[in-house]
Design a protein that fits this description.
Elements: H1 3-27, E1 30-32, E2 38-42, H2 44-70, H3 73-82, H4 93-98, H5 101-122, H6 127-147, E3 148-152
Parallel strand pairs: 2-3
Antiparallel strand pairs: 1-2
Amino acid sequence: MTARMLSIAAIALWLVTIAVAVFFFIRGHTRVAPDGRTAVLLASDERDLVLTEMRGMLETVQVVVDGVKTGDMKQVAQAARASGAAAAADVNPALMAKLPLEFKQLGLSVHKRFDEIATAAGSGASSEQLLASLSTQLSACVACHGSYRLDAVTPATK
């Protein structure tokens, strides 16, 4: 085999590898669930981790609403910041690879919006403004839960 043919074969293999990686980055590890949503297939511990994070964000919503109700903007800012982008900074890349692109985008936008709510609360935003931001935030949650479900899989069911 000539050097030219070997180079072409290497480039072709590289392009196929990149294409497959991009495909799985966008698609994630999924299948269509019986209820019509996209089932994200995760190991049991990965599923538990994502669900724990979601419950934490729901708790944040409750603390933010309580803080808005009582006028405690420090509480609002502190709670929202705890679920902000920093909370997603150290997610395992192997787990992120299993999540479809839209799921990742929704999740990261939720974290970003919590940071925005924290900043707004610290900058003197009104209760109405904060609740409007929180309403937008919850719309992303509803969209995600309406589109996706997390299914735990064992090695035999993958």
